[in-house]
Amino acid sequence: MTSQDIGEQSRTIRSVEIALNVIDVLQRRTDVGVTELADELGHSKSTVHSHLRTLEERKMIVRDGNSYRLSLRILDMATYVRDQVGNYEVIEDEVESLAEETGEIAQFGIEEFGRVSYLCKATGDRAVETASRVGTQQPIHSTSLGKSVLAFLPEEERDAIVDGIDFVRVTPNTITSRTELVEELAAIRERGYALDDEENIEGLRCVAAPVRDGNKVLGAISISGPSSRFTESVLHGELADYVQRAANVIELNTKFS
């Protein structure tokens, strides 16, 4: 590869990065114009304007006066991505049923880029709302969904993810070492479900069970709620039973659909 090729490749990658950063900002903020985007991204207004024009031509964003927003094409792309997950309707039905039965928050997550990504979420009638949203990600080692998936991945894949974890303490209960996490994952494999004991959010506990198809881990399903209701006996008793039954339903429909 020549120096010219390397330079051109670097410019192309940088251009894509700027465009994606523009989309990230528009996802977080409303009524954002060229000046605000340029200030936040640290690029000239002319550079940002060029990317905005390109994104607008590709119908990824919409101009509204002097401001920009994401277009509905993003929603179409998100729907397409969601539907690539096998048996999404079965997953959605089980998540909604779990939320209705327990009155709490029920969620389904999958592993992406060494983190847990939320695919589906439903809220029961007595749920305490959390910051998690469909499409967002959380650390894999401090959530019951993440640990549930991680525990049952093939050893080589699991080790690679664990090697890349930045063990940042979020709460006093967050796992902060590889040794502690490896021990926890072994316990999860033995009992068949994972816990988040106020490890990601103080006052919030979760229990999750993996959804598997043979040796493949499709994801995990969880229930989340306040620690005042999610006592030790309830977590390890009826709530663990709930998520394991829901996981079994998804597995059966996956295997025999």
Describe the overall structure:
The chain has 257 residues and is of the alpha+beta class. The protein has 2 domains: 3-75, Orthogonal Bundle (Arc Repressor Mutant, subunit A), CATH 1.10.10.10; 85-256, GAF domain (Beta-Lactamase, 2-Layer Sandwich), CATH 3.30.450. Helices cover 51% and strands 21% of the residues. The protein contains 9 helices and 8 strands. It has helices spanning 3-28, 34-41, 45-57, 72-83, 88-102, 144-151, 155-163, 178-191, 232-256, and strands at residues 61-64, 67-70, 105-112, 115-123, 137-139, 194-197, 204-213, 216-226. The strands form 2 sheets. The protein has a 6-stranded antiparallel sheet, with helices on both faces. Helix 1 crosses helix 3 and helix 6 (144-151) crosses helix 8. It starts with a helix and ends with a helix. Residues 13-72 form the HTH iclR-type domain. It holds the Pfam family IclR_C. One of its GO terms (biological process) is negative regulation of DNA-templated transcription. Keywords: DNA-binding, Transcription, Transcription regulation. This is IclR family transcriptional regulator.
Structural class call reads: alpha+beta
Q: Give the number of helices.
A: 9
Number of strands: 8
CATH C-level class of the largest domain: Alpha Beta
For the record, the CATH architecture of the largest domain stands as 2-Layer Sandwich
Write down the Rg. 21 Å
Cα end-to-end separation: 49 Å
- SSE pattern: HHHEEHHEEEHHHEEEH
Helicity, as a percent range: 40-55%
Strand order within the widest beta sheet: 5-4-3-8-7-6
Mean pLDDT: 86
The CATH superfamily of the largest domain is known as: GAF domain
Largest sheet: 6 strands, antiparallel
Count of individual domains:
2
- General shape: elongated
Pfam families: HTH_IclR, IclR_C
Domain HTH iclR-type: 13-72
GO molecular function, one term: DNA binding
Protein name: IclR family transcriptional regulator
